[in-house]
Amino acid sequence: MRLPSDGDHSGRTLGDEEIELLSQVIRSGTLNSTRGTFVAKFEKQFASWLGRKHVIACASGSAAVHCAIAALSLQAGDEVITTPITDMGALTPILYEGAVPVFADVDARSLNVTAETIRAQLTARTRAIVVTHLFGLPAELDAILQLAAERGIPVIEDAAQAFGATWRGRKVGTFGTLAAFSLQQGKHITTGEGGLVATDDDHLARKLFLFVNKAWGYGDPKPDHYFPALNYRLTELQGAVGVAQLPKLDGVVARRREVAAALRAALAEVPGLHLPGDPAHGTHSYWKFAFFVDPQRIAGGAAALGKRMQGEGVACAPRYIQKPAFECELFRDWRASPVTWLPLQHNARAHGPMPPYTRAQYPGAVQALDEVIVLPINERYEPAHIRYVADVIQKGAQVLLHA
Ligand SMILES: *Cc1c(COP(=O)(O)O)cnc(C)c1O
């Protein structure tokens, strides 16, 4: 069976609305946002959807994280606490702003950082905490926000995978000082590439705007380039698609929650699986359906079951990312690039063990990656697709079940 894929039309909610607004942009002849109207409209409408004062659009989710980090005006060697299980686009911006990424372990069942794992990494140099709501599951925000407030450290929510997820009835992306979203092809809504940064702080919003615009003071009496920054603008073409996508977002999230609930029901009796669900104080928005396989019950664990699923045409990713981010090649030799080496030279960790992070320090992340299977679902899954996927998982688990 061919399953709907977010890589093409089958698994995306794109249609005449996007085509109509795109045509308007092309007929207008204004394809960039400095003179156009669609990006500005998209920012305003997204701010209203999210419930935040300011939203700035930018070229990608990586750019959105970069903008959020840059807005905090860090000093060389300052530390930003983040997660080892995330998109690399959420990590390299820390380095490009002269700061050192410090990895907090994740909870092996939520795949998210917790107040305890963050606390273990706090130092006198900590200047920001990035909280990633992985796969659309809200992190345990109460304790994290309390800890951050006690220490006076700003939180950046990485909500790239968590559009429409809620915590205590409020959307994630409204809790941190700043929040970043991605509009890349595979996210809840898409403009092909693109990103959004949100804040309620006027001063930070101004810095975000400048960072997207080479820090050129548009509209100022004596504009200048105030600090180093890039051209991270979203185009009007993307802005038009965003304006058309946004009214569909609540429906997309609702559909994904239905698909996940149906999958959960269909898999409830399969032994050896731990299925995702809503946390006690929030709602999951299911960017992916990440479930865990108990290797004590299922022979060969996630790797063996994932292989069987792939053999039956169910695309999935045992392990999600193959290894914790700090084991990626760019972190193996911090001296190899000035981007990694310069921040470290302004930090005491330069005199410590090299590389600074090893898997023995991250039991939660190691266990999570060993046991997880990331199943791509989307809003276009019909009951027949769900039945097929659940069947394949159930049969695979049955064959591998320890006697
Ligand atoms: C996708 C993603 C990013 C990066 O977004 P891009 O648009 O691909 O640059 C950052 N953080 C997380 C958690 C993501 O899933």
Topology:
Layout: H1 16-28, H2 38-50, E1 54-58, H3 61-71, E2 79-82, H4 92-96, E3 100-103, H5 115-119, E4 126-132, H6 141-151, E5 155-158, E6 166-167, E7 170-171, E8 178-182, E9 195-199, H7 202-212, H8 236-245, H9 249-267, E10 273-274, E11 282-283, E12 289-293, H10 301-311, E13 317-318, H11 338-345, H12 363-371, E14 372-375, H13 383-400
Parallel strand pairs: 2-3, 2-4, 4-5, 5-8
Antiparallel strand pairs: 1-9, 6-7, 6-11, 8-9, 10-12, 12-14, 13-14
The protein binds pyridoxal-5'-phosphate.
Residues 60-62, 65, 86-87, 89-90, 132, 158, 160-161, 182, 184, 195 line the site of pyridoxal-5'-phosphate.
Counting structural domains, the number is 2
Shape: globular
What is the CATH class name of the largest domain? Alpha Beta
Write the element-wise H/E pattern from the N-terminal end onward. HHEHEHEHEHEEEEEHHHEEEHEHHEH
> Strands across the major sheet, in which order?
1-9-8-5-4-2-3
Query: Residue-averaged pLDDT, rounded?
Result: 97
Give the radius of gyration. Answer: 21 Å
Strand content: 5-15%
